[in-house]
């Protein structure tokens, strides 16, 4: 049966204030010469985290929805609140965040400081673009309120893609949008990457296809001759819906043989938002969870990304996958877990290169455009030409996020991270960027040119973390042994 929202009770201002007080006490208990980090057991990062022996910040009181204002269509949310809790707190009002990243345990604060994306990004941009204000614990140990036009507007603009190197969000006020109970899907098949790119560009710009509005848009590439765009349209028309939270696998439901006749489907809004979480897109196959015999025995409550993360952590701790490869006489495998963005017109070119050079499939596509800041009434109409300096996407230009998450065989004698380095080089050649949640191998000069906002990041670092209590962005993001 389709999943139903859980009852999420807002924590309220008083409980949130207590959580912030615990956070501040923990900050001041850390030795002044020790680096500051979050004390959290879980993470949606795939890069190695620096080992720090000092105690971390106590964020145990920052995990809930503080309040929802259905009339204003806003929510005040603690920085460590997961999107699963946030969605379940807003759906009863017929509202949802403007962008809901794919995995349930991604936190709002994490999606803003580390960027997030989903199938509404072609019309709603990225999660930080629907933030109205943020309370941020800076590296200096102060809580400041950052808004688009206030005293800390520079931090508001520089916070996205800073990955906690400037501070941590303790509270975010975000916009919400109305949603209907169901999403009707059309899966369009393409037999060429050029045709896929052309359709993706047109639909992302027009926001409709064949006379039907498109509210959600993403794509899946299985090969150079089999790819799909999935178009979602909100609807309140009742009727049968599919269930991909148990036996059936969502990404396999996309596939069909006809280029001329789209396959259709329907999901509840909640199941649509979490359609990728059950099987972590397609990555659950690495754990055997897509084997029909195993799946029948796999507890339904453990068909979710948070459990697969535990399996990944176990593998990292004990080197299970490498040991299995060694018993087969194979070298260790290189982890290639990346999301990159290229301009829409370079999408087919990148995909042809990738499919020829990197043995990973399927691949996820998600178009995005920065939200239009030209309207005089737009509360975030600041610096419309360069609103977010640490991840400089151009306004009124369509990009495509391309996600690929697997591993490839290593070649004896190759430099460490050979495949990832090759991808980084190709992405830069195509005027793109990559997300920093996974291993990176840039030189410092290249990294600063791509991610330091033309000198804005060092100025923000000096202003909000003058004693360098927080790791520098390069030190956090770039793989070094």
Characterize the structure shown.
With 481 residues, this protein is of the alpha+beta class. The chain has a domain at 12-178: 2-Layer Sandwich (Uridine Diphospho-n-acetylenolpyruvylglucosamine Reductase, domain 3), CATH 3.30.465. The chain has helices spanning 12-29, 83-90, 108-114, 121-124, 153-158, 193-206, 250-254, 269-273, 292-297, 305-318, 320-327, 347-357, 418-429, 444-451, 456-464, 473-477, and strands at residues 65-69, 74-78, 95-97, 131-138, 143-146, 167-178, 182-190, 208-209, 212-213, 216-223, 226-235, 263-268, 333-343, 363-368, 399-409, 433-434. It has an 8-stranded antiparallel beta sheet with strand order 12-7-11-10-14-15-13-16. Strands 1, 2, 3, 4, 5 and 6 form a 6-stranded antiparallel beta sheet that branches. A hairpin with a 4-residue loop joins strand 1 and strand 2 (74-78). The longest helix has 18 residues, at 12-29. The radius of gyration is 22 Å and the shape is globular. 44% of the residues are buried. Mean pLDDT is 91; it is low at 375-381.
Which percent band covers the strand fraction? 15-25%
First-last Cα distance = 48 Å
Structural class: alpha+beta
Write down the CATH class of the domain at 12-178: Alpha Beta
Mean pLDDT: 91
What general outline do the C-alpha atoms trace?
Answer: globular
Detail the poorly predicted runs. Answer: 375-381
User: Measured on Cα atoms, how large is the radius of gyration?
Assistant: 22 Å
Describe the biggest sheet? 8 strands, antiparallel
**Do you know the CATH architecture of the domain at 12-178?**
2-Layer Sandwich
Strand order of the largest sheet: 12-7-11-10-14-15-13-16
């Amino acid at each position: 049966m389709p999943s139903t929202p859980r009852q999420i009770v807002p924590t309220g201002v008083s409980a949130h204030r207590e959580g912030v007080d615990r956070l501040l006490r923990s900050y001041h208990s850390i030795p002044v010469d020790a680096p500051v980090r979050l004390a959290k057991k879980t993470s949606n990062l795939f890069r190695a985290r620096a080992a720090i022996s000092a105690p971390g910040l106590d964020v145990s009181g920052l995990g809930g929805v503080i309040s929802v204002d259905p009339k204003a269509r806003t929510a005040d949310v603690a920085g460590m609140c997961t999107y699963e809790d946030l969605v379940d707190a807003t759906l009863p009002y017929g509202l949802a965040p403007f962008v809901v990243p794919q995995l349930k345990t991604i936190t709002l604060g994490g999606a803003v400081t580390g960027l997030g994306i989903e199938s509404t990004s072609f019309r709603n941009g990225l999660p930080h673009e629907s933030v109205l204000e943020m309370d941020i614990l800076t590296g200096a140990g102060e809580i400041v309120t950052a808004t688009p036009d206030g005293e800390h507007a520079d931090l508001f603009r520089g916070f996205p893609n800073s990955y906690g190197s400037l501070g941590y969000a303790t509270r975010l006020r975000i916009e919400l949008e109305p949603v209907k109970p169901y999403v009707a899907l059309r899966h369009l098949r393409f037999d060429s990457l050029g045709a896929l790119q052309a359709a993706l560009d047109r639909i992302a710009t027009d926001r409709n296809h064949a006379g039907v509005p498109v509210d959600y848009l993403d794509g899946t590439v299985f090969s150079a001759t089999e790819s799909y765009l999935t178009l979602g349209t909100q609807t309140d028309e009742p009727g049968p819906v599919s269930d991909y939270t148990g036996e059936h696998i969502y990404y396999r439901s996309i596939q069909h043989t006809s280029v001329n006749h789209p396959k259709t489907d329907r999901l509840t809004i909640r199941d649509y938002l979490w359609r990728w979480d059950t099987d972590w897109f397609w990555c659950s196959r690495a754990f055997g969870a897509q084997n029909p015999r195993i799946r029948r025995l796999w507890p339904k409550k453990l068909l979710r990304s948070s459990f697969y993360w535990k399996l990944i952590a176990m593998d990292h701790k004990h080197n299970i996958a490498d040991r299995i490869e060694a018993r087969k006489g194979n070298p260790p495998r290189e982890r290639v877990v990346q999301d990159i963005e290229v301009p829409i017109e370079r999408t087919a070119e990148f995909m042809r290169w990738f499919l020829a050079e990197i043995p990973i499939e399927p691949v996820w596509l998600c178009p995005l455009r920065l939200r239009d800041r030209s309207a005089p009434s737009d509360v975030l109409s600041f610096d419309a030409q360069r609103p977010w300096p640490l991840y400089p996407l151009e306004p009124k230009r369509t990009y495509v996020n391309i996600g690929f998450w697997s591993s490839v065989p290593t070649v004896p004698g190759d430099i460490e991270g050979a495949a990832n380095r090759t991808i980084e080089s190709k992405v830069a050649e195509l005027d793109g960027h990559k997300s920093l949640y996974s291993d990176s191998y840039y030189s410092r000069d290249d990294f600063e040119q791509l991610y330091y906002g033309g000198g804005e990041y060092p100025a923000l670092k000096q202003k909000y973390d003058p004693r360098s209590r927080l790791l520098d962005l390069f030190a956090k993001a770039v793989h070094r042994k």
